[in-house]
Amino acid sequence: MSSIVELKSVTKSFGQVMAVQDISFSMEQGKIYGLLGRNGAGKTTIMHMITAQLFLTSGELKVFGETPYENNRVLNQLCFVKEGQKYPDNFRVVDVLEVAAALFPNWDREYALSLIEDFRLPMKRRVKKLSRGMLSSVGIVIGLASRAPLTIFDEPYLGLDAVARTIFYDRLIEDFAVHPRTIVLSTHLIDEVSRILEHIIVIDQGRLLLDEDADVLRGRAFTVIGPAATVDSFAEGKDTIQRDTFGGFVSTTVMGNLYGTDRKHAEALGLEIAPVSLQQMIIHLTNGKSGNKAVEQQ
Ligand SMILES: Nc1ncnc2c1ncn2[C@@H]1O[C@H](COP(=O)(O)OP(=O)(O)OP(=O)(O)O)[C@@H](O)[C@H]1O
């Protein structure tokens, strides 16, 4: 597999603010990445560097094997869909599509029109008259129909209802199966997108906290459910992510190998075992809490 994006010891500071500190990771061709982290973690700064909208302070960045700045060979292969994208005042939806068609070499007009229908977007309406959710849908249509070899979505859902978000995830998976490319999703809706993410990169306070395949990550913790006394005795001394009670039952999520001896022990005790959600894992990791403490759901 070849690397599409490669960061080596990348640092970015804004005056005294160290937004990104000594980060190294790479992204491969044909994978869907989640770029996750709490507010202010440094995700947007990283996306702006990858898309040549910000210079690094130090380190090395290669996109498609080259430095991206003023480099059309790289920029032609990129599509960056960002929250709150601005369009000229007089632009209608149809004008946005026309510009996109000229801009993206792999643009698929038929596909774009089918997405416009899916999202029920009025072609002739001025973009500035669209609702917040409709505006987000325009960005999603562009991101998907661009079929850019590197497509980055930075929180593309502002104002989007649950039906539209589901359409986005479903269309993305369908199209990705036929036209694999590298897709980066930066979002706070981790549970919603977790089924489509193949690789997770978590940034915390400007530093790389995690760079791991989603399945491996899911296998690093599990939930046991059963009578309080049995669950608590099983969890004693283990790194507990979360503990919930309902009636006399307790559900506790612990760090441990989902397929290892801990699981066998839990099974022997007659406890029910369930996989952990990616969101729970990431909240745990970015809260930095461990020991037998429950963390708040965010
Ligand atoms: N132009 C700037 N000038 C000064 N500080 C900045 C600038 N851009 C970003 N920062 C700071 O860098 C840090 C990282 O910001 P960034 O926007 O990359 O975070 P984020 O992970 O995208 O957050 P969110 O999830 O809230 O969008 C924050 O502390 C932010 O205040």
What does this structure look like?
This protein is an alpha/beta fold and 298 residues long. It has two domains: 3-216, Rossmann fold, CATH 3.40.50.300; 219-287, Alpha-Beta Plaits (2-Layer Sandwich). Helix content is 34%, strand content 30%. The protein has eleven helices and 13 strands. Strands 5-6-7-3-8-9 form a six-stranded mixed β-sheet, sandwiched between helices. The protein has a four-stranded antiparallel β-sheet with strand order 11-12-10-13, sandwiched between helices. A hairpin with a 2-residue loop joins strand 8 and strand 9. It is globular and about 65 Å long. The site of adenosine-5'-triphosphate has 11 residues, from strand 2 and helix 1. Residues 5-230 form the ABC transporter domain.
Helices and strands, in order, run as: EEEHEHEHHHEHEHEEHEHEEHEH
> How many domain modules?
2
- Rg, nearest Å: 22 Å
Instruction: Give the beta-strand count.
Output: 13
- Broad structural category: alpha/beta
Oligomer: single chain
Q: Note the total helix count.
A: 11
Arithmetic mean of pLDDT: 90
Distance between the termini: 36 Å
List the bound ligands.
adenosine-5'-triphosphate
Strand order of the largest sheet: 5-6-7-3-8-9
Helix content bin: 25-40%
The CATH architecture category of the largest domain equals 3-Layer(aba) Sandwich
Give the C-level CATH assignment of the largest domain. Answer: Alpha Beta
What is the CATH topology assignment of the largest domain? Rossmann fold
Overall 3D geometry?
Answer: globular
The CATH H-level homologous superfamily of the largest domain? P-loop containing nucleotide triphosphate hydrolases
What fraction of residues sit in β-strands?
A: 25-35%
Major pleated sheet: 6 strands, mixed
Low-confidence stretches: 289-298
InterPro entries: AAA+_ATPase, ABC_transporter-like_ATP-bd, ABC_Transporter_VariousFunc, P-loop_NTPase
Pfam family, one: ABC_tran
GO molecular function: ATP binding; ATP hydrolysis activity
Keywords: ATP-binding, Nucleotide-binding, Transport
